[in-house]
Amino acid sequence: MADVARSAQVALSTVSRALGGKPGVSEEQRARILAVARELDYAVSPAASGLASGRTGAVGVLVPHIDRWFHSTVLAGLEDGLRETGMDLLLYRAESAGERSAFFSALPFRRRVDALAVVAISLSEAETAALAGHGIPVIGISCRLPGQRFVGIDDAAGAAAAVRHLTNLGHRRIAVIRTTTVTGSYGAASAERYRGYRQAMAERGLEVPDAYVASAPWGVEGGAEAMAQLLASSRPPTAVFCESDEVAIGALRTLRRSNLVPGRDLSVMGFDDHLMADLLDLSTVAQPVQDQGRIGADLLLAALGRGEADRPEVVLPTRLVVRGTTASPQGR
Amino acid sequence: MADVARSAQVALSTVSRALGGKPGVSEEQRARILAVARELDYAVSPAASGLASGRTGAVGVLVPHIDRWFHSTVLAGLEDGLRETGMDLLLYRAESAGERSAFFSALPFRRRVDALAVVAISLSEAETAALAGHGIPVIGISCRLPGQRFVGIDDAAGAAAAVRHLTNLGHRRIAVIRTTTVTGSYGAASAERYRGYRQAMAERGLEVPDAYVASAPWGVEGGAEAMAQLLASSRPPTAVFCESDEVAIGALRTLRRSNLVPGRDLSVMGFDDHLMADLLDLSTVAQPVQDQGRIGADLLLAALGRGEADRPEVVLPTRLVVRGTTASPQGR
DNA sequence: TTGAAAGCGCTAACAG
DNA sequence: CTGTTAGCGCTTTCAA
């Protein structure tokens, strides 16, 4: 930077202001300094800048998975919302319980980022406090962190809409396939979707026998097994609501292998509107995933005082997508 | 750090050495200092450390897409290989031609990372030089960067194996669906796979009429259209080699909508072994994707002098996966 | 093995 | 609007 100052015949501080986009520099000077900097192929050292200012110019994102459709799409949206700002994006993953506790004990983002986004991981108040306790804002994408900004959908409402679609078709024996995380527990979204299912069933005065509540580890395999289990019950359901499309895809596989036709013999509903849902003609509840990332970026920037509208909570709409795997039950 | 030094009754420099894992500190001291640091909940400032040492403790990764199976899986592998080291991972994406040139003119990773991994983007020698010219090592994952470390597969060999599988089944009229990037050009992997296809065809003395070479933008839609185009030719092929599974999935969709049965009426080969390939019973060429990320991490560390075995080039094996979409042509 | 001290390259008062 | 200057919190010689 000294070189630039010398070359432009101005003081170091003026260069700093010009390059930092700070006020207090005439446009004329600023333009000249920018030109000189470009010519010298100069780039500000983030380390020095960070040391002096206390800001890192980066945000972190913590995800439970990188290579799943939902999470990578959120990441893509986040990156998209951040690119223009010049903020860097630091990627942290905590998949297993061990990794998660390692993350919480090491807090590797400390002093590294100005703000942190947490994607689809439900944290206790204590855990949230542990993150936010370092003076940086923390936001939740697809998960509510007590007292922090949030963007996501209304999972319960989406699930209820899905189940109402089934009851409207005439189904009364509607099962659910719940999904568990790698730790074997139910995530927050799962809990909410389940709540929506129970609620919509109760609205119609429909019973939910225990045998109609299946649980499976997230994924195609889990869904396939859960569906097999449901088919084996003494009085199989006529419709199944799956807490995620990946699970529904597994359910469809079991159906196909049992020579049952989705829609005709048994209706299947997913949730998410995964890319493959369209291909497999799967009825589902669509949620705007990339938008959640993009809005997450906005919230991050707003929290850093760089954004426009700061909102404590953004709830995006879901949309019922009716395709071929749902239809009225036979012999109604 | 001063606090820690005071608390531990040692000099600042000793604390620095102890925390940095540098030699020249008695084990006794080191243990005590570490204990004090933990108790004080102290974490080294990466900014200050970076300013003083010139190292950032972070690596960058440049991907063309975040939300595609291949790329997110590579990212997952990279993250996995890096987590233990404490190195941070900075995510850069350049999707369109505009974003790519913006990346090259801004070089946002400058002074931010100690090394850069480029995933599946073929760069010219000039572009590679522009990246490496900042004194940091650059490695290519699934793309060769002139003069830099590389990890990937032998695309041509994989494609040739796929085509040989088809010729061994008795096919002679074998078409190919090529995939173009968002810029409309062929990527390096596409070029190599096409080369493998031509080579395997030539080996068997088989003709490749122009009508048997279809091109489509990457993705399901593109594949569907390309397949429709192939079916419309005066003498349709009996088998189609697709440069990627996503494209093959689109091809299968067109087949289904044309009431043709994959395998029986027309054989379809993919490439990559996407998660969905198994579900759709698609024959394909499997490549170890997560491993490429993991080994990419090793190469980065080796380039920084922190790794073990440094190899200039790692070529991972591909594996032919025969499923239901390929079979001998009818009426052979 | 330990300590003292000189920067690393910026930002942000403060003064002009 | 511009310049001067004092740190920011470390790493790393160099000396002891």
UniProtKB/TrEMBL annotation, chains A, B:
Source species: Arthrobacter saudimassiliensis
Xref: PROSITE patterns: HTH_LACI_2
Keywords tagged on the record: DNA-binding, Transcription, Transcription regulation
Full protein name: Catabolite control protein A
Example GO molecular function: transcription cis-regulatory region binding
PANTHER family, alphabetized: HTH-TYPE TRANSCRIPTIONAL REGULATOR GALS, LACI-RELATED TRANSCRIPTIONAL REPRESSOR
Transcription regulation is among the record's keywords: yes
Source taxonomy: Bacteria, Bacillati, Actinomycetota, Actinomycetes, Micrococcales
Domain HTH lacI-type: 1-53
Record bears the keyword Glycoprotein: no
InterPro entries: HTH_LacI, LacI/GalR-like_sensor, Lambda_DNA-bd_dom_sf, Peripla_BP_I
Annotated Pfam families: LacI (PF00356), Peripla_BP_3 (PF13377)
